[in-house]
Amino acid sequence: MIELGTTYHRTPDLTLKMKYAYKLKGDGVERFVVFKIPFELDSEANVEAIEFMSNNKRLIHHANFAIHPVEDPSIDIYGTIDSINLNTSRYLYDQWLPYKKEMTYYGGWMPGTSYESYPRDMGWVMPRRGVMLLTIHFSPTGKDEESLNGVNFFFTKNPIQRTVKVISLGSAGIGERDIFPPLLLLPNDVRTFRLRVANSKEDLSVLYVWPHMHYLGKEFKAFATHNNTDTIPLVHIPEWDFRWQEIYRYKKPVILKQGDIVHMYGTYDNTANNPMNPNNPPIVVESTGDMRSDQEMFTMLLLYVSYKPGDENLILD
Q1: Is 185 found in the same domain as 139?
Q2: For 189-203, what is the mean pLDDT?
Q3: Measuring CA to CA, which residue among 97, 117, 300 is closest to residue 209?
């Protein structure tokens, strides 16, 4: 039996993992596979931390997981197919559509990420019944491997007074079409792309940011402006490393008021001087939203709660 373990400071209260290890062929093909993992608990549970785990993270380019509540007992969460290879069988996804009427939370993992934990009294509520749809982007490999993956959940008896939410900016998210210039890298290009996104929602108290680029990334910088004058630093990674994509946690919440503008700048190096460039000689690299490893991305996730007066002085534990 393959045990996934944990890097959190205690044993998980719940682990949702694949029904069986996926047999990954060593044919050099990257694969996108979605695994359905149903669950039924005695009651709802307050979540203080989550953690993606795998018996071999080296095989994985990235992972995403969505928690979908399915309270209607007439909807069978067990009888449908357990996994779908999106490369070959995307049409089978329709049988899972009854599960996707609602989504409680959306998380993920990228190389270098540890766990996602929340300050006291913050978090989200795990539904009593539902499914987790776990999407694994398998990197190409040259030998047959087995991959077993899942998510650890850590519950708390403290009531969740403020719900943590996630928003994605840039590639595959809000403002994707506004990246300027369009995210396309010609051979021997070293180029900077930018994105401006206005906060059209409520006032936000941002807890963490999570930047994402692929192998050609060189530098990532983001800040916000208030009334086009005050500058609010968000994150700056002067030397991007695809292998180290940790969540960046703030000591105090960063307040983004409605109307504030988030500015993102990403510099990419598509030359032979970039030791992480998978192509020698360099080739044209696009960004079409498929998130393949031979494409690029320019993304930043914000984990936040709705703003309350006094959040400026809140110390995050």
Answers
A1: no
A2: 96
A3: 300
The answer to whether residues 304 and 167 touch, using CB atoms and an 8 Å cutoff, is yes
Number of domains in the chain: 2
Q: What are phi and psi of 178, to 5 degrees?
A: -100, 0
Q: How many CA atoms lie within 13 A of 108 on its CB side?
A: 24
- Mean pLDDT value of segment 185-202: 96
Written as six digits, the tokens of 158 are 């403290």
* 118 and 218 inside one domain: no
Indicate the residue among 102, 128, 160 that finishes a domain.
160
> What is the per-residue pLDDT for 317?
76
Q: Is the pTM of this model over 0.85?
A: yes
Among candidate residues 7, 303, 27, the one with its CA nearest the CA of residue 169: 303
Q: 4: exposed, middle or buried (C-beta count within 10 Å: 0-12, 13-18, 19+)?
A: middle
Q: Quick one: CA dihedral 15, 107, 44, 133, positive or negative?
A: negative
55-82 pLDDT, tens per residue? 999 999 999 999 999 999 999 999 999 9
Same domain, 188 and 88: no
Pick from 115, 134, 160: which residue ends a domain?
160
